[in-house]
Every structure is written in structure tokens, then in C-alpha cells.
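yo, Ribulose-5-phosphate 4-epimerase/Fuculose-1-phosphate aldolase is done. seq:
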Amino acid sequence: MQESTSTNREAEWQVRKDLAAAYRLVAHFGWDDLVFTHLSARVPGPEHHFLINPYGLLFQEITASSLVKVDQEGQVVQSGSLHRVNPAGFTIHSAVHMGREDAGAVMHLHAADGVAVSAHRDGLLPLSQTAMLCLDHLCYHEYEGVALDLSERERLIRDLGDKRMMMLRNHGVLTAGSTVAEAFTYLYFLMKACEIQVRAQSCGPTHLPSAAAIETTRQQSAELGNASKLTWPALLRLLEANGHVYAI
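structure:
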């Protein structure tokens, strides 16, 4: 029992370090929104606890030890200097962690280009290779107001289904992955696709590829999450090169 507890503690610390790194990376790419929006990750153990940011810290301030551990009812189990959790963040993240056993990490942003595409009538269009790699993983959820009503969790999970990426209409984007690294990789591709679409549409009429090319790319996107095995170590090196101290 003691060995199992020690193993879980070590595994949780690794998840904490990865999630703190993801917060720093979101800030690095300019996708943060002051102290709002959230990234979360499930910790090992039968309790189904997950980690989320303390409400009040900038993403560039997040460290492994500052993350707040909460249960599925939103009760704080363990915290650092701040123990507040944004109720809207709890609603969205608890929904995905409760409804998808494979969702080890969930990431939600209000970044401008993601919100812009979520508000576009046609949503994400196949205007780039990056977008085409996302389409088969993508779903949509209609806006219902600030996510404070716990009953929305049921509808959010219904709309998410088995997908890995979601456009929260008129609100932002969300990704889910088995690990922090995988969820962040999905997030990067989705945000890059949105950025490209906003720029392309600002230039005037756009060109769409053939249906055959879109279908080929859809098939090729099946292993997109596996790219995290290459991207995550490189992203951690990026943080280290920029002097980020997050694993404390």
C-alpha cells in the first residue's frame, strides 16, 4: 500500500509539472486571457480528482505546486497559496473529466482567433492543411451563457461525443487528450488553424481544396495526437530556453 501511495504521488507530481508547463506555453503563445480560462488534468487514483489553476494567478505565474486539486463536486482537496477555483471552469472541466474516461487533460481558451472562428457561421473551414487535420476531430457546442449552470455538463458531453476538439460557439475552443502533452498538441493545431483562417478571410475570397484532398487529409489525421511524442519534449525545451521556472 505504501509503495502504491508513493507511486501515485510521483505520478501526480509529473502531471502537475506537465500541466504547469502547459499554462506557461499558453502564455508564451499569447493565448491566455488574464486569470480566466482553464487547463486541467486528472491525477492518478480512484478518487477521480483533477488539477486546475487557482483563480487569480496569471498563466505565466502557474507552478506545479500552485495548482488546485478538486473533486468532481468542485470541492478543494488540496491547494497552494490560493484555493479559489473559477466556477465556470469547474463546470466545463468536470463535465469532460466525468464524461470521458479517456480525457486525462482538458484545455479551454478564449484566444481571439479561436473565438472569432467559433462565431463564424461556417465554423472551421478546410482552408489550410492544418485545418484539414483538425476537422475529423472537431465538434461544436452552442453558447448557453457563462458556464455556471451544472446542467450544461450533460449537453456539453453529448456534443463532445468521442471528439478531441470542440468549438464552444461564440465563446472559445476546447481540447481533450489522454495526457497533457496530447491535449496541448491538439490545442496547438486547432489554434493555428483558426489563426490561418482569420488571416485568409481578411485577404478576400478564399480557395478551397478538392473534396478528394480534404478526404485524404482527414484519413491522414487519425494519428494527430501521436505528434505529442515529438512536440512535447521540444516545447519543454522552449520553456527552459526562455527561463521559465514552473516545476516547483
